[in-house]
Amino acid sequence: MSPALPTGRFSAPPTGRFAPSPTGPLHAGSAVAALASWLDARAQGGRWLVRIEDVDTPRCQPGAAEVILGQLAALGLLPDAPPLWQSSRGAAYQAALDRLLAAGLAYPCGCSRRDIDAAWAAQGRPHDRFAERVYPGTCRAGLNGKPARATRLMTVVDGAGVQIAWTDRRLGAQQQDVAQAVGDFILHRADGLWAYQLAVVVDDAAQGVTDVVRGADLADNTARQIHLQRQLGLPTPRHLHTPLVLAPDGHKLSKQNGAAPLDTRQPLATLQAAAAVLGLPALPATSVTDWLAAATRAWAAAWPLQPAVHGTVA
User: Is 230 among the annotated ligand-binding positions?
Assistant: First the structure.
């Protein structure tokens, strides 16, 4: 029997999560996201969870998840339940995909990246390698004899592109035409792995996540995730996208550009540096526990509590 998916309403208390990929240790940027999500959950008197997003197995490093959990513990950021590992969640992702396929909301695609680029080039629109590779809908009406490579979600409904509007708690009003910005996006990859968008939506619902607090570089994913939540009848959390920590070259600090592993030997200094990025005031304290309590009060003042989320947002 396929696992049941949650309904489109929240029944859990306010719940936040931190969802690192175990491709290496945490760095200063990921510390900001972890602290923000922890503070937000605690300020609401809610739960804070950790999810290990190891669905992209070729990129994961052996032992990295354990290092990450140790770094969080050193900072006093302890989850309220054992971590959820995406690598154990294949049955739940398959159940969601089966529902979408049965409803005609998703379809198999036989296009490679080269095929997609060729389709746009034929229309005089060559792909900019720094821009999103928007899918032109080539296989939406059928594979035309091509073998299936991936599975995509429809972003055109009743002949019109899906328009998603939402309000970010920090960035304000947001809107995206998903069909124009990204096109029908992948749910199950050509290499057999589950796509990030499907996994994160299914897991947020399964864990009862009411508030997604994460880095601003992930804000662009929000519209397609809301669309997918609506197609699956799942609740949509509130969103707050935090400021990014930048490398000396001005780009986002990341493992890919050589970000140094987070040094937790002086946890108060590390927490204070992350709090400064979040715009919190200096908070003198003699212990991590006292500092986190003061930071929770500061966060509650900076981001006043809102009513709990129920159902999906407009």
Answer: no
Largest CA distance in the chain: 68
252 is catalytic: no
Tokens, residue 112: 């490679």
Instruction: Judge: domain 15-90+198-303, CATH 3.40.50.620.
Output: yes
pTM for the full predicted model: 0.90
Cα–Cα distance list, 5 to 93, 186, 204, 214, 221 (Å): 10, 20, 11, 24, 21
Q: Check whether 60 is labelled as a binding-site residue.
A: no
SS3 label, residue 53: coil
- Catalytic, out of 47, 149, 239, 255: 255
Which residue spans within 22-132 are E strands per DSSP? 47-52, 84-85, 106-109
pLDDT category of residue 255 using cuts at 50, 70 and 90: low
Q: Is 66 annotated as a binding residue?
A: no
Report CA-CA distances (Å) from 294 to 63, 229, 272, 280, 301: 33, 35, 11, 10, 11
Structure confidence at residue 247 (pLDDT): 75
CATH code: domain 103-188 is 3.90.800.10
Consult the annotation and say whether 255 binds a ligand: yes
